[in-house]
Every structure is written in C-alpha cells, then in structure tokens.
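Hey Z.,

So I finally got round to the protoporphyrin IX containing FE thing we talked about over coffee. Here's the setup:
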Amino acid sequence: MDTIYTKRWLSVAVTFLGVGGSFAFLIALSRTPFGHAHFPEGFMFQGIVGHVVLAIVMWLMSFTVVLWSIYLKGRVWRGSYHLAIAGAILVTVSVFTGSGKAIVNNYVPTIDDPLFFFGIGFFFAAFAINGLSYLASAIYQLRSKEPLKCAISFSVLIGLLMMISLCVSLLLGSGQEVEPRMAYFEKLFWIPGHIQQVLNGALLIAVWYALRSALGLPNHDRVWLRPFNWMLLLSALVLFIIPFVTDPVSRNAKIGAEIIYGVGLGIPVFVHAINILIGLSKAKGNFSGVVFLSLVLSMAIYFLGIAIAYTGLGNDTRVPAHYHGAVTGLTLAMMGLTYTLVRSSAGAKGVLEKFARIQPVLYGAGMILVILGLMVSGMFGAPRKTYGVAFASDPLVLTALTVMGIGTLMAVFGGVLFVSYSGIKLLGRREF
Ligand code: HEM
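And the result:
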C-alpha cells in the first residue's frame, strides 16, 4: 500500500464530496416550499450539474482509486491526482461561471462548454491511468479467497470497461447528429453511466466487507459466492455490447438495461449483503460505534432505494429517490471506512470527535428523509429537476418536499461533520 498516494487520493475524494454536497444543499432547498424563494431559479440546472458530477462521478470514482491503492499493488503515476484536481477545478469553474448551457441529461449532466469537457476529460484520464496501473494485480487477485479483495479486483475490470465504453460511445456518436444537445449527451453517457452503477455495486460489496473486518469479524470465503462476482462482470459486459447491436436509448435497450440492473446487479449485492450480515451480531460491544452504524445504516439506505426501484419508477422524483438510496448508501459506507483510516491521526479531538460519532446517524437519518420525501412527492407526480413548488397544490406533495428539505439539512450537516473531521485528520498526518 502506497500510503502517501492513498492519503492524497482520499483528500481529493473528501474535497469533491464537500463541493458536491454544497450543490446538494442548494438544489434540494430550491425544491422545498420553505426554501426555494431564497435560491436563484436560474442556477438550478447548473447546481444539478455541479452536484451530480462532483458527487456521483468524482467523489465515488476518486474513492475507488483510494480502495485500489489500499488493496492492490501497482506502479502508479503520482501526477494522476493532480490531473483529477485540475479536472474538478475546470468543472467547478464552468458550473459557477455558467460558461455554457447546463444540460441535465442522466448520469453525467454537462455544461455545454470546452472548459467542462476538458475538466471531465482530465478526470476520466486520471481514473483510467489508475485502472491500468492496478490491472495486473487485479487480474492476479480475481481468484482471491478473500471476498473483499475479490470484489476490489472485479471493480478494476468494470471501471476500465466503463472508460472503454465511454470511448466507444464517443466514436459511435461522432458523425451523428449532435442536436438536440440533450439527446446527444443522454446517448453519450447512457451506457458508461449504467456500467458505473455496476462498478458501484462491486464497491458497495467491498466496502461492506471492509467495515465488517474493521469490526473484528472474519470475512469467510464461500465458494458459492464466486459466481455472483462474475455475474457483476458479465452484466457490465452485456451493457458494453448493447451499443454495438442496437440504439442504446431505444425502448428495448432501456428495458434490457433495467433487467440487468434488477438481476445482474441487484442479486449479487443482495447475496453478499446476506453473507455480511451473517454473524454480525458477534460484533459485541461495537453496536454504537461509527463503523457498525455506518455499515447497518448504509445497508438500510441502499435497500430502501432498491425497494423503490423494484416497486416501479415513473419519470418523477421517485427516480432520484431510488438513486439516492443506491449512491448515498455507498457514500455512507465509504464515510465509515474513511473514519477507520483516519481515526488514529492527530487533531479533531474533543467536541469534533464526539460529533464524528453521531455523523453516520445524522447523515443516514437525513438521507432516509430525503429519499422518503422524494418518493412520496414522486408518487403524486412531482417532476424531476424542477425549481420551486409551483407545480404542486396537493398538501401531501408539499409536506413530502418539506420532509425532503428537513432531511437535507440533517444530511448536509452530517456531510459537513464528515468533511471537517476527516479533513482535519488528513491534514494532521503525512501518510497512513
Ligand atoms: C446531502 C446529501 C444529498 C442531498 C440532499 C441530495 C439532493 C439531491 C436533489 C434534490 C437532487 C435533484 C433531484 C431532482 O430535482 O430531480 C439530486 C440529484 C442527484 N443526486 Fe443528490 N443529494 C445528496 C447526495 C448525493 C450523493 C452523495 C450522490 C452521489 C454519490 C448524489 C447523486 C445524485 C444524482 C446522480 C442525482 C441526479 C438524479 C436524477 O438524474 O434524477 N446525491 N440530489
């Protein structure tokens, strides 16, 4: 483990989550009855671009490099996190300056401006360079008896497949109609975005196992688990092939992608979750600890989000309700693992340490309220990505969006606690 490298990438990841979280505060409150009037309507779409790109792309993918640097061996290029930082700065500047039109397509919403594209390009290049650096070690470890190391190894293959799929998407898109921009970017990022969710599934499994071992519990190798890891890789491969055989955003392709989510991604995560829960009660004396709470709340949030998807999604706020289940479940697990990595560092003692102990509950409970608020308002037709509440007169929808707003305040406070605690700890040491 290259400890300086790991620490640098963790610092980068925590910073991205902080910036992504500040955009979340802005766009979430722009959707509440009590808050929207205090936020500029014109910034809503830029805010969504900033939130989604910094959170789901840069925070999650930077933390992926942190995990690779801890559990794999590789000759890494140290300049890669400088490239990632440069990318994030360009993206954030283009969001704030509104240098181009904000296009809120799925998976990677964009600012239609070279500044943004250079930024996201630099970041993806930094990620791909790391994937290639750890590829040999990942292939060697694919048959590891340790479920954690196995999941990490599959995440490298799936992560690289996502990058190749992005290049394929660009090539297949070149020479095609680029207007309207929304349709063009929706198609460009559709399959790479889906493959990223399979990557997130592999990461979720790995981080849950890491939290379980941080509780002092062994991670048993179970032969019957292996096929489920290969199922994840197979799902990513089938998604990868779709653009070669049909229009990836056609109705049939979308149905196919949803079945892959429900079966190829949902089942492996579910089976590993059962394996992780077996014997968890043996974590005696740890039940109130940050690690235990992060693990259990992360699972609760993830399965709440997945249950929303299995009950059927309309094109309304049930989609972000589902999304936030999946990705903030993962985020909370990563926060718990960060805590285990930095807690022995100097600094952040006393009050902040006490607050850090309630951080998983604040963030977890807050996100559950955000998800339930978005779900209920969606069930009554609340549209996605819409400023204010002018579309709603139903008191149930207004109440649900208020609950989402209260959850946002709790989750953002939990996020601020996490970023400040781990930030101070990371500043307090040169390496792990
Ligand atoms: C403080 C915590 C967070 C809050 C309050 C929050 C709130 C929101 C809100 C209000 C939206 C817009 C939904 C709409 O108007 O349709 C949104 C979109 C989104 N957020 Fe978050 N978010 C948070 C954390 C995160 C994190 C940590 C991630 C990823 C790691 C994430 C990923 C996304 C994605 C992918 C979308 C786009 C959803 C879509 O396309 O419908 N969020 N978020």
